[in-house]
Amino acid sequence: MNPIQSTVFMALQTNDDTRPIIEALQRDNPAAVVHRLPAMVKIDAPGRLVLRRSTVEEILGTAWDLQAINLNLISLSGNVDETEDEMVLHWNR
Amino acid sequence: MNNTHTGQAGKKLSLKEKYALMTRGLGWDTSYEPMDKVFDQLGLEGIRIHDWDKWEDPFRLTMDAYWKYQAEKERKLYAVLDAFQQNNGHLNISDARYVNTLKLFFTGITPAEYNAHRLFAMLGRQFPGPGAAIACQMQAVDELRHVQTQIHSISQYNKYFNGLHDHSVMNDRLWYLSVPKSFFEDAISSGPFEQIIAISFALEYLLTNLVFMPFMSGAAYNGDMATVTFGFSSQSDEARHMTLGLECIKFVLEQDPGNVEIIQRYLDKWFWRGYKVLGLVSMMLDYMLPRKVMSWKEAWEIYFVQNGGSLFNDLSRYGLRMPRHWEQSVAEAEHLSHQTWNSFYNFSDAAAFHVWLPSDEDMAWLSEKYPNTFDQHYRPRIEHYRRLQAEGKRYYNPSLPMLCQTCQIPLIFTEGDDPTRTSHRETEHEGEKYHFCSDGCQEVFEQQPDKYVSAWLPAHQILQGNCFAPDADPQAAGFQAEAEVMRYFHVNPGQDNMDYEGSQDEANWRLWKGLSPDGASKAPPAA
Amino acid sequence: MQTNSQAPSSHPLVRDRVDNFHGQQLIYVGWDHHTMICAPIALLVPPGLSFGELVDSLLAHSAFALHPDWPRINWAEVEWFASDQPVTPRRDTALKDQGFGHKTFLRMRTPALRGIAGSGS
Fold first, then answer.
1. What does the longest C-alpha to C-alpha distance in chain A come to?
2. B63-398+497-513, which class in CATH?
3. B129-175: per-residue pLDDT in tens?
4. What ipTM, to 2 d.p.?
5. Residue B309 to residue A4, Cβ atoms within 8 A
6. Residues 83..102 of B with a Cβ closer than 8 Å to A: which?
7. Count H helices, E strands: chain A?
8. Domain locations in chain B?
9. Which candidate from A42, A74, A79 shows the least CB-CB separation from B235?
């Protein structure tokens, strides 16, 4: 209906908690683009963005509860699908 | 312990199982009163819901996890606020001018958060589906938290800067604050589905990114640790609210094909209502942040055109289209902040914050960001204002403005094909004339004239004599009407408003920062 | 189309009816291509006020008079519009007797003047 490329995004606070999350997003979503703005990091991806608990845990070296993302999430765009193991943002499911 | 739900003691529930048990598992149908009497507002709008169990919160957040994470957010926030107070954080901002964005936020947005709290508390009561009711209950608590944390954060600034002393009275009475106030009152007096489309979808999903992301990032860029922290703490809830909004809209559209036309009408209305309120944010970004993050035009492109466009691409499979007049909002992005700022420059003797003229550097930035409009249309009048100020003849508008019946903003906007000609629309309803700033606002009125004919328009209320304190006597000799209106607003003329240059805020800032009157830094006084 | 929302009340409150203005009425006046005055202005006037008095006593003490183009206006050339339609106001006639009732919007255009440095402001 309009010529816009459908982008999903996740915006996170800039802090130590989110460093491994951003790294995991970059690792699991090669098409993601990371924008570092004052106090926040916005990660854009075409159509789909996945955050995997296992990748964050691998980077952290310890267990991590995916729902803890709620503490540092500033905003998002896209349909959300969340389980214990991953959180997916997507358009056109 | 009773583990009958799971059948086996000690088994850890999956997120989906836990969500099902702790939302739907908590619902029941009433027996001593029919359900349609208990939930009596559901039928008023013509929306048809066949199966509330289809509602699912994608975050699958249950109350136990909600309290845990909200408590953690509060602990983090209050640790920062303590540090901010103990370290005189207000002295680390880029410039005292910056605090004026907080004055606008605190008097305009914070009371709106309280109204949002009331709205969601009522909404939770109106939805029979426990999934929806619990999501609304969480949001009602969230919004109350936002009010409280904002008041707490800004209390530090209130100790040192003028204009922050009475946000709730100002929100009720001050002319420009009727814009956000009437937006929320319009929403809260709607049916339950319109309320959730208005706030959770149109406001949260389409528009609040514009308030919180560039503005809070701007707060960080201007050294305001307290505001960044409460802003992002609030915004971490907004991600959930947006998801609620999107989930709600998909749920309603999937329930019945007849719902599409109603939802489209709500989206058209609330996009336009929300866009009009955001004019205040455009001015904050382009004219009020001493260190600027991005222009309004850039922010609208990222957060509305791209993000909103993606969303509506997704929703087109339900038969929804982009809200009416969205193209106009894109074209107007070239003008919005300049026209909004000019109205506050005109009336800054009746506001509760300071204004100032853009510096040469600011104007260079505005030219660069608005190459199609700034030098041609807006620079000449700012230069004119400069000349007047240099001659000691600062221009204040002594008249009252004509207001739009719907958005309540003065008719400050111009026609799409002529940015020097005021945009005006007019209609007659039951023998009375009504005036609007735009086609969008006229259409909103014409959908529900009985609602908007009762709008409390500040300029008209002043002229009807309704904006004086109870002890004021307009018949008394020497009655000072303008001063009495300011007293009714709880605004201290000259102290809370007019130009930043020469204000008490400026004098205090120079004193605290060890700046000489010409702006040069000097050594701080010996301890 | 009427509301799909909460049941409308049978007697909506019309908050700005002329009776609420204590014997006076509202007139709005705008000046095209002079956007320094950020919006048209709202004036409270006695309905018997003549158009000439509106210009000479009310507009001359309004925001309009603070615009640098104000003293340069050639009043013989000014074009007037009511509800965005061209009109020819009669100076000596009362507002109410030439159809400028409560909440009428009068717009003026000064063809020779285009605001500050010709910018339309």
1. 45
2. mainly alpha
3. 898 999 999 999 999 999 999 999 889 999 999 999 999 999 999 99
4. 0.94
5. yes
6. none
7. 2, 7
8. 63-398+497-513
9. A74
